[in-house]
Structure formats: structure tokens, C-alpha cells
Design goal:
The protein is α+β, with helices and mostly antiparallel strands and 139 residues long. The chain is built from 6 helices and 6 strands; from the N terminus they run E-H-H-E-E-H-E-E-E-H-H-H. It has 2 domains: 38 residues; 90 residues, 2-Layer Sandwich (Double Stranded RNA Binding Domain), CATH 3.30.160. The strands form 2 sheets. Strands 1-2-3 form a 3-stranded mixed beta sheet. A 3-stranded antiparallel beta sheet has the order 4-5-6, with helices on one face.
């Protein structure tokens, strides 16, 4: 049996009929895509994409002691989090990131100043809370 180097289907019907091949290719790290009208969608392994985004988007998180607690900010982003300890501030930032991703998917993606955060939202959605904490502290 010969393994294809990539899997591309020109229509949604073809992609649906060969979905196992599309998923297998994505899992193997091979290019996989499905065309629908004038739009072409790539199918990728979620963990591979998450790792790529983690490396592509360092958080740049800044941890600042304030009034007996800690504040975390992500420079250039519209959110921050506070906590009485570093761990509590990190937990709060994970919550803030999850809420932002939800808001982005519902409406903010249409706003010109938030639309560029597509990659950040993908990273948030593909990561566990532990993985987000590691990303925030640069691990």
C-alpha cells in the first residue's frame, strides 16, 4: 500500500467521503485540505498546531507586584488579571483568556482591532489550563 504524501479533496462531498484519509493525513503531519466553493480549509493535528502557535506567539506576559498581590498583563492585549499570589494571578489570567476566546468567537472576531487575534484564540482553545499557564510563564 502506497502512502500519499498529501491529501486534498476538491469538494466537500469528496472530503466527507474520504474523511478517514483526511484525519489520518493530519495525524501523520501530512498536508490535508478540503475545498468548498472558493474556500479551501486545511485539516491539521490539533497538538501540532498548538505547539506551533506556542512557539510562534510567546506570551510576553509581565508579572507585576501590586498592593500585596500580583498583576499579569500581556502587552498589546486588552486584558489583565490580578491575584493575591502568583498562582492565583495565573489562574485568573487563564480564566480571562478563556472568556476572551469565547467573546472573540461570538463577536470580537468581526472587530478590526480584535480580528488579528485569530492565532491567539486558536492557541487558547487548543490548550489545557496547565498548558496555558506554562505558555504564560514561558515554559
Amino acid at each position: 500500500m502506497t502512502m500519499q504524501s498529501s491529501v486534498h479533496f476538491g469538494t466537500l462531498s469528496e472530503g466527507r467521503a474520504h474523511l478517514k484519509s483526511v484525519i489520518d493525513a493530519a495525524t501523520d503531519g501530512r498536508p490535508a485540505s478540503i475545498q468548498r466553493d472558493s474556500s479551501r480549509s486545511a485539516v491539521v493535528d490539533a497538538e501540532r498546531l498548538r505547539l506551533l502557535l506556542t512557539n510562534f506567539l510567546p506570551s510576553g506576559a509581565e508579572l507585576v507586584p501590586e498592593a500585596g498581590g500580583w498583576t499579569i498583563v500581556l502587552p498589546g492585549q486588552p486584558f489583565a488579571a490580578d491575584g493575591s499570589s502568583v498562582d492565583k494571578a495565573l489562574d485568573e489570567m487563564v480564566t480571562v483568556l478563556r472568556e476572551y476566546a469565547d467573546d472573540w468567537s461570538q463577536r470580537l472576531r468581526l472587530a478590526p482591532n480584535h480580528a488579528p487575534n485569530w492565532a491567539l484564540v486558536q492557541l487558547i482553545e487548543l490548550s489545557s489550563d496547565t498548558q496555558l499557564r506554562e505558555w504564560l510563564v514561558g515554559q
